[in-house]
Design goal:
binds adenosine monophosphate, four-stranded antiparallel β-sheet, eight-stranded mixed β-sheet, 13 helices, 2 domains, disordered N terminus, Alkaline Phosphatase, subunit A, single chain, alpha/beta, 404 residues, 16 strands, Gyrase A, domain 2, binds zinc ion
């Protein structure tokens, strides 16, 4: 008898603390990222579906956060914190507290290791804590149990997975019985970023990649319609893209001996660790004025870039002038040079990212100005009815975008 009583008490206690699963009839929220898509890519005649969504709903643009890279900005979009505070300070980074590991997008173990992501709380974690089910059809951070919580449904990143399969998986999640159905879903497409790097932002291949992604979003829209679902769809990008002319290269070996430091990132931004004992030599070489580049010690980066306080930021950060890249002759000889890149100043118009939103919660037919991408998280929180964690963004985008 006592055992039964004890069990009953334990059960009651568990019920009291576990979030009650929310069975909601509210429209699903679908956050779609088209990596590397600039707002002006909608004007290339390649995107009938997105253009119709923009015409029915909202169209605007997002100023990315520094550094203008994929992982840092995807994490900013879902946490409302700039990279210096969300912990994903670059696509490639090191942490003195996680010795011997270099975080890279291709390092599957690191990408799934919560220690890299735990400095911030993505919106799906906040939602799951409140009993709201979430599903990620890829998103940086979604493969790790951040602060111990994963999306209810997620898949390990697989670039080769066809767009149609990504969309069909998302629709299958929406077909789950109401108690299991996710309310917040993400979807990710990489093809536009790849075409921009390989061919440059103005190439026909970029319009071709936009058309491919547009068709996939068309498949999603048709699937939602067939199910009678009026979703709130938000289409964003992490950053834009600019051309990288071959005559605008800064060769690091012309500035310092290459063995005086170790670079973790090169191109449209450079991060560098001076070799032990050679700090002064590296600083003398890099911190002086250069015609097409500015370098800083991490503690002296201009405040407007909001970068440099995180222990994961490299000791030296260099930012080339727009369209210039930092590289080495050896790298140019061995790698196929990219015709497009990103990583420059987030204020550059070419670095701006796409924003389109459509659905019952959004105003119709409005064009919005540029918002900082930290404002997307408070918008998502409001759509989900969650109190946003205090962060770097504000209610501005939500107030402009949502029906009052
Ligand atoms: P970037 O080098 O900043 O242009 O990053 C773009 C690349 O990030 C694309 O080629 C994607 O395949 C890759 N990527 C996007 N999401 C993930 C992920 N969750 N895991 C690993 N790689 C990813
Ligand atoms: Zn990207
Ligand atoms: Zn890219």
């Amino acid at each position: 008898m006592r055992l039964i009583l004890l069990l009953a008490c334990l059960l009651l206690a568990a019920c009291a603390t576990a979030p009650k699963p929310q069975v909601s009839t509210a429209p699903p929220i679908i956050l779609i990222s088209i990596d590397g898509a600039r707002p002006d890519y909608l004007d290339r005649g390649a995107t009938p579906v997105l253009s119709a969504m923009a015409a029915e709903g909202l169209r605007g643009s997002l100023r990315p956060s520094f550094p203008v890279k994929t992982f840092p900005n995807h994490y900013t979009l879902v946490t409302g914190l700039r990279p210096d505070r969300n912990g994903i300070v670059e696509n490639n980074m090191e942490d003195p507290a996680i010795p011997g590991v270099t975080f890279k997008m291709s390092n599957r173990a690191a990408v799934g290791d919560r220690r890299w992501w735990d400095e911030a709380e993505p919106i799906w974690v906040a939602a799951e804590r409140e009993g709201v089910k979430t599903a990620t059809m890829f998103w940086p951070g979604s493969e790790a149990p951040v602060r111990g919580v994963r999306p209810s449904y997620w898949l390990p990143y697989e670039e080769a997975m066809p767009n149609e399969a990504r969309v069909d998986r998302l629709l299958a999640w929406l077909d789950l019985p109401p108690a299991e159905r996710p309310r917040l879903l993400t979807l990710y497409f990489h093809q536009v970023d790849k075409a921009g790097h390989d061919f440059g932002p103005d190439a026909p291949q970029v319009a071709g990649a936009m058309a491919e992604v547009d068709a996939a979003i068309g498949r999603l829209v048709a699937g939602l319609k067939a199910r009678g679902l009026a979703a709130n769809v938000i289409v964003v990008s992490d950053h834009g893209m600019a051309a990288t002319p071959a005559d605008r290269r800064i060769f690091l070996e012309d500035l310092m001996p290459l063995d005086a430091g170790r670079t973790l990132v090169m191109g449209a931004i450079m991060t560098l660790y001076p070799a032990p004992g050679r700090e002064a030599e590296v600083e003398r070489a890099l911190l002086k004025p250069h015609p097409h580049m500015t370098c800083w010690r991490k503690g002296e980066i201009p405040p407007r870039l909001r970068y440099g306080r995180n222990p994961r930021v490299a000791p030296i950060v260099c930012l080339p002038e727009m369209t210039w890249t930092i590289t080495t002759r050896e790298w140019v000889a061995k790698a196929k040079p990219e015709l497009g890149s990103h990583g420059w100043d987030p204020d550059a118009p070419e670095m701006a990212a796409l924003f389109v939103a459509q659905g019952p919660a959004f105003r119709r037919g409005a064009r919005l100005p540029t918002f900082d991408n930290v404002d997307v998280y408070p918008l998502l929180a409001r759509l989900l009815g969650l109190r946003p964690q205090p962060g770097d963004g504000g209610p501005r985008l939500a107030e402009s975008a949502l029906v009052r």
